[in-house]
Structures are given as structure tokens and as C-alpha cells.
Amino acid sequence: MLGLAILTILLAFAFTFTNGFQDASSIAATFIASRSATPKTGMLLVAAMSFFGVLLGGSAVAFTLAGLVTVSSGPQELIIIFAAMVTATVWNIVTGRIGLPASSTHSLVGGLAGAGIAAAGTGSILWGAEELLGPAHELTGITKILFFFIISLVIGFAGSFLMHRATGILLRNARRTANRSIIALNWCAAALMAFFNAANDSQKQLGLIAMVLVSSGLALTPEVPLWARLVSAVLLALGTVSGGWRIMHTLGRRIFRIEPIHSFDSQVFSASSLALSTIAGAPVSSTQVITMSVLGVGAADNPRKVTWDVGWHILTAMLVTIPATMIIAGFLFVILSPLLGV
Questions:
Q1: What is the residue range of 185's domain?
Q2: Global model pTM greater than 0.90
Q3: Rounded CA gap, 296 and 156, in Å?
Q4: Per-residue pLDDT for 155 more than 60?
Q5: What residues are paired with 125 via a beta bridge?
Q6: Is the residue at 126 inside a domain?
Q7: 129 inside domain
Q8: Structural domain includes residue 127
Q9: Which residues on adjacent β-strands are paired with residue 69?
Q10: Does the pLDDT of residue 23 top 70, yes or no?
Q11: Rounded to the nearest 10 degrees, how much is the dihedral formed by the CA atoms of 22, 25, 27, 28?
């Protein structure tokens, strides 16, 4: 199974690269669409901060994802991870090519859950319902991920809505030259957003790599090695500068016309949300956070100018991602298991 372990690790790195244009490019969408930066400089800033975010990010999110499926360490666990990685990577590529900002986080969660159920039944999945209803009221597993999914949708929209209303009041008598200061602040906000996104985003793949190393006998404990962080940091940065232009167009131009202040309000709130989620060990989607913050800012500015159909289209993709990837990964495990003698 050493060959499968190596292939799965390589696939995890490929998934990291696709995340570069699926999630990290979404960060640059409002930044560039607001004309706060050119496409080249904007993407380079996001790529650089993404690199450091991977290197300096913690491991709380990685351990949350690694604990979702409980099966005996060995070939079966390797196939589960492999099926989840194949499903999530293909989902990233397909949704990226059609310009749909779907959640790479939820595609990976759905892939793990679907393959885990196919391998060992529903009891192998840490749903988190019992822990939440128990004496400790612990938020964990799938329940924790879904909780932050809902909270990020609600808070992402409402928070950015209120923030934009507040900045609108503060800047109502400001001169046009105030845009220069806003653009400068936009650079800081975009840098923070890129850093915290990478810190949260990369841990999903790194957690699975740690699981693969233990399952294949290459490591005794599920710890993230430095070499894996370095490779992921490089690939996420390269993925950022190599694509994602369709997604940037969807988020940055098709919802409503974005000005520097819109971008600033959206980026500040999104960065704060991602930072808190990373500290809490919750894997969330930057695409999801940014989409809702852009809609919130647009609604606060002028709801009649917002193309709501785009927002609903994106939300539909988010809601479909987990069940769709569960089904795909489950079928993939059923196909691969007998072929690999498990």
C-alpha cells in the first residue's frame, strides 16, 4: 500500500494547487474589481500572503478533519482518504472551470463522509449530535462543521451589511480623495484575508497527509511534517497566480459594481471570520465567507443594484456540494476496494 500512500499524498498536493485558484483567487476578487490593485499585483500579494499563511498556520483545523472518520488504521483508511481526495479535486476543477465558487472545504468533508460510510457504515463518522446533546454540549465532528457553515452564512451577510452601513455614515461627508486611504487599507485587509484563508484552508490537506503517513506506517503519530507545509505553501501560491479568473469575475463583477470601500468592508469582516474559525479549529470555506460578505455590502449600499440570482446560484452550489460529493466518494470507494483487495 506504499504506492497508494504516495499517490494519495501527491493527490493532496494537487488538491492544494486547485484550492489556489478556487479559494485564494476569490480573495482577490473584490480587491481587484474595486480597482484597488491591478490583477497582477493583486494576485501576487494574495499568493505571497497565502504562502506565509500555510507555513505559520496551526493544526487545530487539521485535527478536526482528521477525526471525522474512525476506522482501523491501514489499507481501508488509505482508500477512504484517496477516494475523498479524488472526489474533492475533481469537484474543484469542474466548478472552477464553469466559474462557480463552490466550497472546496465541503467537497472534502463530503468525500470523507461518503467514503467512510461506504467502508464502515454511518457509525464510523463523527456526526457530533450525541456530543452536542450530552452533558458537556461539545461542538465537534460534522455538527461543528455544519454549525460554522450556517453561522458564517448568517454572520457573513449581517456583519458586512452593518459594517458597510457604519462606514457609510462615517464617510458620508468625505472627499473623493479619501479613496486613496481606503485603497491603502484595502491592501492590508486583502493581505490579512489571504493569510488567514491559507492558514485555515491548507490544514485540511495537511491533516489528511498526516493520516496517510500513520495509516501507511510511515509515521507513529498524526503530526504535520515541515516538508508537507513547505510543499503546500508553494503549491497554494502557484495555484493562486495561475488561475481563478472566472471565479473572480463572478464574485467581483457579476453581483454588483464594487468600489474600494465595498472591498474594504468585505475583506475586513471576512478576515476576522476566518481568523476566529481557524483558532476554533473549524474548517470553513473562504468562498462562502466572501460571497456572503459581498452580498451583505451590496445590500447595505443598494439592494436594487445587486444581482441576487448570482448569490442564489452560489448558495445552491454550497448546499449541493456535501451530499453530491458523499455519493460520488461512496461509489468510488465501492469500486476501488475490491480492485485493491480490501
A1: 2-120+140-339
A2: no
A3: 7
A4: yes
A5: 69
A6: no
A7: no
A8: no
A9: 125
A10: no
A11: -160
Q: Rounded to whole angstroms, how far apart are CA atoms 48 and 290?
A: 19
pLDDT given for residue 25 in this prediction: 62
41 falls in which pLDDT band (50, 70, 90)? confident
At 247, give phi and psi (nearest 5°): -70, -40
Task: Please check whether residue 30 lies inside any domain of the structure.
Answer: yes
The count of domains in the chain is 1
When the pLDDT of each residue in the chain is averaged and rounded to a whole number, the result is 81
pLDDT, position 145:
84
Q: For 279-306, how does the pLDDT look when each residue is reduced to its tens digit (9 = 90+)?
A: 888 888 777 777 788 888 888 887 877 7
Torsion angle in degrees (nearest 10) through CA of 55, 60, 66, 67 = 180
